[in-house]
TrEMBL record:
CDD domains: Cyp158A-like. This is Cytochrome P450. Belongs to the cytochrome P450 family. Its cofactor is heme. It comes from Streptosporangium longisporum. Keywords: Heme, Iron, Metal-binding, Monooxygenase, Oxidoreductase. The keyword Metal-binding applies.
Amino acid sequence: MSPSEQVLSYPILGDAALEPPAEWAELRRRCPVAPVTLPSGDRATLLTRHEDVKRVLADPRLTRQLNAPDAARLSADGGGVFSSEMAQIIPDGGEEHLHWRRLVGRWFTAKRMAALRPAMTEIADRLVDDMVARGRSGDLRAGLGFPLPVYVICDMLGVPAADRDRFAYWSDTLLNLTRYGQAEIEAAQVEFFEYMAGHVAAKRAEPGEDLLSELIAVGGPEDGGLSDMQILVTGMALLVAGHETTANMIGKMVCMLLADRGRWERLLADPSLVRTAVEESLRFDANAGIGLPRYLPEEIEAAGTVLPRGTTLICSMAAANRDEDVFDAADEMDLGRSPNPHLAFGTGAHSCLGQALARTELQVVLEVLLRRLPSLELDVPAQELERVEGLAVGGLRTVPVRW
């Protein structure tokens, strides 16, 4: 049966954690606009070609919010990061959204990230020291991949990094597909909301040198700033986005580079490839999670198919990043690939606000590991690496390495 004649369950998983599902290539070739069933049981439409995904993500008419009555639910509980009440507080389009991005985006410029780079390197070196002190092997996710981005985003928000395990749990409940029940999710979101409300109130009383203090200092909407609720939800959103995806990507990147020893050796021989190797890791990531949803408030066309108003689209950036029409030898990892127009951070007005931060963290981790642990290798066969299950983001449960 061809993809156009069946409804696939989504997300579609490859045979191994680092491998793309065979269905991606088939869908791009024969059924680029495919019906799928989400974990909630609701029907959506999957896009897998680079051209279609890029155009839809850049279309300002479409919304990431899935709160319309006829929008598909990602998870059975109907909550989550795209359809919760909190998701509606940050403006989703138009001049209000651009204003929000301008205010918050000042903290995520390439120039500011360059200034943070020495401190990031120091944190990574200290975490590697701790790993080495514990022996000749360990879990790179727990030892480096998770704590580094948490320390960085906590510092930017002025939040105590000692609370990082609570942040991880709260983040996971917001990114739930099938792991948690509704009562647990709601309780966790209330805890997270109350925590951040207390933190914003403390910053208002005693401002610091951090993003939230700066947003408060601008004033309210009448002064060209954000409302208290918008500042609070911005803090929550950045805490989730600022650590979860990058923590997972650090582990996946290292595993991709170690899965074929020639890749690691090439970087050891030529560390100037670190920047392009990071971009290629982002493109090559086959375990990127569910992708980005878009709800259609009006009819559009994609790949010659008319999609009616009320359709929920799922844009698979990971599938689009393997599109042979855009990338030569798309199924090969080329550490020097340039140009590399991957869509890992989305595109257009809703492209990832923190991409300069993520890129800098990934580059720093790679530089530090190549310098400190040149003999690094996987401690299990790549095929035995286990995926994170039940969340909207992709990742590995552990990253067992030795050195």
